[in-house]
Amino acid sequence: MMANRSPSYGSAIINPQYCVPYSVDLIITKDRTFGGHHFTVTDVNEDVVFTVKGPLVSILTPHAHRFLRDANGTTILHLRQSLLLQSGWKAYRGESGEQRDLIFTWKPPQLFQRGTKMKVFLANNTTQVCDFKLVKASFFGRSWIVTIAESDTVVAQIKHKVGSIVSREKFMITVSPNIDYAFIVALTVILEDYLSPRQ
C-alpha cells in the first residue's frame, strides 16, 4: 500500500523565514516589458516582498525561465519550463538548474482535465501521490485554491484580476498561517503562465 508522504502542515518548502504564524495577503502585479513578463509582489502596505523576472525564453536553451528574487534582489528560486515537451515546470534553489538543487516539480492537468487540477511534487517525493494541488474554484477560472495533496485542506487562495487599458493584471493571494508564502508565490507565477494563452 502506497503511503501518503505529503509534507506536514506548516513545513517550509523554500525557506522557514517565509513561514509565519498568521495569514499573509500578497498582491502580484504583472508588468509587460521588452524582455517579457515581469512581476512585482507587494504586501498590504504596498512594500515590495519579491520580484519575478525573466527572460521568459532563453535564446541559448529550449526552456522558459523565471527567477524569484527577494526584496534585496537576491535570487531565491529558478523556475524553468521545458518548451519541447510542455511537461510542466521545475523549481531550483537560487539560480541553479542542477538536479541536486531541485525543490519541486509542477505538472499540468491531464488532457481531459484541462484547467481543473495541477499537481506539485516535492523533490524528495518518490510516490505517485502529489504533495500539493492547485484546483480551479470558479467556473471562469478567476479563483483558485491550493490544497495539501488529495485532501480538502486549503493552504492558499488565489484570485485573478484581469488587466485593462487603465489597470494591470493582478493576482491576489491569501496564504494560511505557517505556510511558505514564497512557495505559493512561485505556484501563482507558474499558474499565470499556464492561464495566459487561454485568455
From TrEMBL:
InterPro entries assigned to the protein according to its UniProt record, in alphabetical order: LOR, LOR_sf, Tubby-like_C
- Residues annotated as coiled-coil are none
Membrane spanning stretches: none
Q: State the source organism's domain of life.
A: Eukaryota
Regarding protein family, the annotation reads: Belongs to the LOR family.
Q: What is this protein called?
A: Uncharacterized protein
Q: Which organism is it from?
A: Stylosanthes scabra
